[in-house]
Amino acid sequence: MTAKKKPARKAKTTKKGKHPGGRPTDYKPEYARMAHLCIEDSGFSMYKLAKLFNVDRVTIYRWLEKHKEFRNGVEKGRTTWDGHKIHTSLVKRSVGFSYTETTQEAKPIIMKNTDTGEETVFGDRLLITKKVRKYFPPDVAAIKHWQVNRDPEKWRDRTSHEIGGKDGGPIEVQSSAEDKKLLQKIAKELFKKAADG
Fold this sequence. Notes:
The protein contains 7 helices and 2 strands; from the N terminus they run H-H-H-H-E-E-H-H-H. It is α+β, with helices and mostly antiparallel strands. The protein has a domain at 26-95. The chain has a two-stranded antiparallel ribbon. The protein has helices at 30-42, 46-53, 57-66, 68-95, 140-150, 152-155, 177-196; strands at 97-112, 119-136. 48% of the residues lie in helices and 17% in strands. The radius of gyration is 37 Å and the shape is elongated.
């Protein structure tokens, strides 16, 4: 008795007749909005986006090429982060700023049994123990960076060296007869080597 052969399955084909190949994408349309918000709010890098979506960084770059809405989301997030957030931070560092530092400590949550007088610890809770107002003075490096970029002609680090003669005139060069003879000798030797060589 011979076994019947099963007919070979046909591979799926695209409209052009080619096999689509490759693994299906993990991309979802909502990733565009997520990427936009993560970059805009926290300045996520491509590496951090890859970790967020549980893919390789190369996959993020493929999505940027293939999915226009994802690329637009990333670009909008970068524009906001680079343009507004960094600008605001630089301005704060340039002019100085104040903030309130809050210190918290873990305190145990203790319940007392009124019948037996026994105390039971149920964990910890954070309690604010101290608030201190702190001031950061203006940062000279931030001020310099701000000024150089706002008015480069006035503030850029530029050193100009001019060499001139007396009263801004040309430089006078004096040479002795010995110097002239030495230069002529060197020139003759160089011409001779060039002609022989």
